[in-house]
Amino acid sequence: MIKHLLSAADLDAQHATLVLDTAAELANVSSREVKKLPTLRGRTVVNLFYEDSTRTRISFEAAAKRLSADVINFSAKGSSVSKGESLKDTALTLQAMGADAVVVRHPASGAPHRLASWVDGSVVNAGDGTHEHPTQALLDAYTMRSRLGRVAGLHVAIVGDVLHSRVARSNVLLLTTLGAKVTVIGPPTLIPVDVGPALSPDLRVSYDLDAVLPDVDVVMMLRVQRERMNDSFFPSTREYARRYGLDAARMRRLPEHAIVMHPGPMVRGMEITPEVADSARSTIVEQVANGVSVRMAVLYLLLGGK
């Protein structure tokens, strides 16, 4: 297994499948009365979060604790970081504490790569800027496999604010590695110029959601990240929802077996209506539960689990 997980591109099909298979085995622990394994006893996992994140931080914390690791939660707010300490100085502090793994979320793209050059332990990228979020892509692939039985050969539509989405980038890289076909859909202003066959030969771009829906197995809706926008990328919220929102009428255009995904947090009524989000086709709650199993698998494999 690799030493760090910085990008979905770090995983070839064999390693990615190993993570998914390991997660499937570890998922059985969640159904037991005592949800703990002694696998990482004596190891220290640091959650280093420079951006707010409820789901991802708690998911990694739960994963580490279920493997019996010691967990240190480090929030940038109220720490020396808010007083101006650099990432490198923070890294040296973690190194001195003997961190075996550092799970990092940072607003700057590439920060986990820098961190990996400064610490001896494993570094897991829990989201860096608009760059990547590899464990989210892994849990999405795991969810597809558990619902549809496979990833290879699926047609996945990723819809919405692709420009600002690290989830979209990681999913494109991982899903095409695992043999899926991916179409990204959104307004032209929210599709990055480097997304297309150049990123992966199995990737397509479309600006017409209705044309693609009848042909997909999975539709993944993305949140519009207003906090990362300085300009107006579309005329209005209402217009965006009309063209790119998933409502009950659009859901009826999907094949019968198709599932609906969302990495969260959702803006109900904008990219997805409540009736779709709460429907039997939606895997949104499952994705959160699967996240713990997948992150357990990542920590287990990076920290020497066999």
From TrEMBL:
Its EC number is 2.1.3.2. Residues 3-145 form the Aspartate/ornithine carbamoyltransferase carbamoyl-P binding domain. It is an enzyme of class 2 (transferase). InterPro entries: Asp/Orn_carbamoyltranf_P-bd, Asp/Orn_carbamoylTrfase, Asp/Orn_carbamoylTrfase_sf, Asp_carbamoyltransf, Asp_carbamoyltransf_Asp/Orn-bd. L-aspartate binds at K83, R166, R223. GO terms for molecular function: amino acid binding; aspartate carbamoyltransferase activity. It comes from the Bacteria. Carbamoyl phosphate binds at R55, T56, R105, H133, Q136, G264, P265. It catalyses: carbamoyl phosphate + L-aspartate = N-carbamoyl-L-aspartate + phosphate + H(+). Keywords: Pyrimidine biosynthesis, Transferase. Pathway: Pyrimidine metabolism; UMP biosynthesis via de novo pathway; (S)-dihydroorotate from bicarbonate: step 2/3. GO terms for biological process: 'de novo' pyrimidine nucleobase biosynthetic process; 'de novo' UMP biosynthetic process; amino acid metabolic process. Residues 153-302 form the Aspartate/ornithine carbamoyltransferase Asp/Orn-binding domain. GO terms for cellular component: cytosol. Catalyzes the condensation of carbamoyl phosphate and aspartate to form carbamoyl aspartate and inorganic phosphate, the committed step in the de novo pyrimidine nucleotide biosynthesis pathway. Belongs to the aspartate/ornithine carbamoyltransferase superfamily. ATCase family. NCBIfam families: asp_carb_tr (TIGR00670), PRK00856.1 (NF002032). Heterododecamer (2C3:3R2) of six catalytic PyrB chains organized as two trimers (C3), and six regulatory PyrI chains organized as three dimers (R2). This is Aspartate carbamoyltransferase. The lineage of its organism: Bacteria, Bacillati, Actinomycetota, Actinomycetes, Micromonosporales. The gene is pyrB.
